[in-house]
Amino acid sequence: MKRGCGTALFAGLLLSLLTGCSEDAPVRHPSHHAPPDVTQLPAKALPGGDTTFVNRNPENRRGIDDFSQPSANLPASQRGTFAVGNSFFTNAWVSAPASTTARDGLGPLYSAAACQDCHVRDGRGHPPPHADAPITAGIVTFASASGEAHPVYGGQLQTRALPGAAPEARVRVQWQTFTESLPDGTEIAVRRPRWQADQWGYGEPESDTRVSFRIAPPMIGLGLLEAIDTAAIEAEAARQQADPAPPNGRVHRIARSDTEASTVGRFGWKATQPTVHAQSMKAFAHDLGITSELFATDECTPAQRVCQDFPNGGNPELSIDIGEAVVFYARHLAPPARRYVDRPDVVTGETLFTRIGCAACHTPSWTTAKDAEPSLAGQTIWPYTDLLLHDMGEGLADGRREGAAGPRDWRTPPLWGLGHTTPIGGANAGYLHDGRARTLAEAILWHGGEAQAARDAWASLSATERRKVIRFLAAL
Ligand code: HEC
Ligand code: HEC
Fold first, then answer.
1. Residue 169 to residue 139: CA distance in whole angstroms
2. Which one is predicted more confidently, 8 or 313?
3. Of the candidates 184, 183, 154, 147, which has an alpha carbon nearest to the alpha carbon of residue 169?
């Protein structure tokens, strides 16, 4: 056996993990038993820069906990805070009053009892597989005919409630399957969700309201995305808009209540939240029913007296220390190393990805700001997102308007870690905002609007080339 493919144990494992080492692979790592020298690997093999988690399991498998690791460069002194945050992210909250005052205050209306119930193993959530399965790993969005939040039910339907309170509604999905025919005659089965709500807890709403669903996105690399300079994101939007041809991504500007200035939204499927902190506090209030300094009330409208009638778990319910630990945790989950970066089909797949226009929105690389938190600062990262809003067409529209994002607008999601979707999220985990796409091919076929041309270009490739694009995505 040649060196680099097994003789140098540590180096060999790392190399095969990252490059799909074959017998004739070049020797890239010189020493036996030395710690792996990550500078010897192509930069894009480490999508989170120095924060990247490298799983060294001997079978070259993706691990079920690959999204749950702290940034590799996190100082030992900060790992305790990460562990505290992990505990409050993972374990269930309970109703107040309770003996465990640190984690009480759940509800009275809520969508899940723990962050992890939706962000499954720090990865994505999933839609229910069939009409009789309950909603578990995402949120139900609700819109008036105008697209705005509903006056009684708000912008999110809470499908759970504490004993004594009524859930807002029962929500179910019907899947409709149809076939997409590609130019070469290949047929691909695609499914579309139809969301329905009944058993309304607070009165029947108007018939022109719209129910939709969003899975929880993966939690990796969020601190790095937050550390990208606002000016760099604005420059990318200006660059896209200078050319009338799509894509023409837009920054989601968010009005701030505390200052005159607006800020740039980058988190959530419609980029509605500017920071990991804001998104996390919103999650506590809207998904768990836990109030904080930032969100003084649960997601209850004045028409829902039930929220005032229940005892609360402190005012606010979330202590500042626990909130900060959870946010710290959410900022420091490491993106895992890429695999097979040098394999010829993966390399060709990425070239095609760029050539047919995917990389125009799924921007491969960014460098984080120098003045960010030390472990996140100045890193070259490979998230494959421009963090901008795009009109993705009617097929993906959800009827919901949030700030400057209309029903057809979605933020380009990062693609790092995409190949971990099934190992971590399980068989029901799918792609796109509502998890409707069971395969990567299905996800591409739903691209419309500004992404229509790239979608059509992929559909027009030969079967072999289409497969190489998918191989590249699955190796991320
Ligand atoms: C009921 C399901 C659910 C629960 C529980 C939940 N989330 Fe989420 N999370 C989501 C959804 C859905 C989104 C996308 C939100 C959107 O599109 O507006 C999201 C987005 C996020 C994001 C932004 C990720 C990104 O890439 O944009 C962060 C950070 C986050 N959640 C943190 C938390 C924290 C912290 C908790 C626990 C306090 C939590 N979430 C609980 C469903 C959930
Ligand atoms: C105009 C911008 C744009 C272009 C061009 C584009 N995408 Fe996307 N992509 C998006 C947006 C926005 C979403 C999220 C849509 C949603 O969730 O409803 C997305 C979602 C995805 C997803 C699902 C990600 C996940 O986490 O669920 C994959 C995979 C993907 N794109 C691959 C591609 C490929 C391959 C191409 C080229 C054929 C491409 N995209 C071209 C904007 C774009």
1. 13
2. 313
3. 154
